[in-house]
Amino acid sequence: MGFIPRCVESAPVDGDIPAIAIIIDDLGNGYDRDRRAVLLPGALSYAFLPHTPYTETLANLAHSLNKDVLLHLPMQSIEAESPGPGALTLDMDALQLWQTFFTSLAAVPHVVGINNHMGSLLTQHPGHMQWLMQAIAMTGNLFFIDSFTAPKSIAFKIAAENWIPNMKRDVFLDTARDPVAIAREFYRLLEIARKNGIALAIGHPYPETLTVLETLLPTLPQHGVRLAPVSQLIKLETQRIQTWRASLSP
After folding, report:
1. Class assignment of domain 19-248?
2. Euclidean distance between the first and the last CA atom of the chain, given in angstroms as a whole number
3. Largest Cα–Cα distance in the chain?
């Protein structure tokens, strides 16, 4: 979980092969583009925006391919740009936030976890994050990924305080939509995984990103790293926490 120092050794399975997970965000608004993303080879994970034209169809497709489906939950950002339908905002009270969350959750089938869309403002507010994590805890079976869109985000910490399995993003693959820059971030992801045992990246269904992933994902065995669903990375991170806590016991 994000609040545990990354220097703590993890314990990947499959012969201690370092593991990465990659979440493709912002899905649901473009059919051809998003379908190409869902059909990428391997155990990628997919975060779908609620209340969009193609979310239900493509989330069903991803699930049929045994890929993890997440709710990409819109949240208010510092910038004026609208996060889109189903957004959680600072002017909401607890009841409004819960109603909006559960309506958005119902709009995306096969959800195993949540990550934030935008949210650089809301993820810094402990009260709203507490309300959100209470709602997630009510489901009994979802994890939370902090997309970490703000360096002062406390979302992952509040998730941990509510005993919700959680992680925060290590790498954004495509802050720059340039194939060379995307490849550079991909290799940085591998370095983090080799150092810490696991690493988590977020990317988007840009043509440049998809082309780089189509090219580089098949090379993972050569680098001694494996691709895992984000749900499996969460389990490995939970194992890391348990090992760390056990090491502190007298």
Report:
1. alpha beta
2. 23
3. 56
DSSP H helices in 88-178:
94-106, 126-139, 155-161
Which pTM value belongs to this model?
0.90
Question: For residue range 32-76, what is the model confidence (pLDDT) as tens digits?
Answer: 999 999 999 999 999 999 999 999 999 999 999 999 999 999 999
Q: What is the dihedral of CA 56, 60, 62, 64, to 10 degrees?
A: 180
Give dist(CA 3, CA 82) in Å, integer.
29
Q: CA–CA separation, 73 vs 105, rounded Å?
A: 8
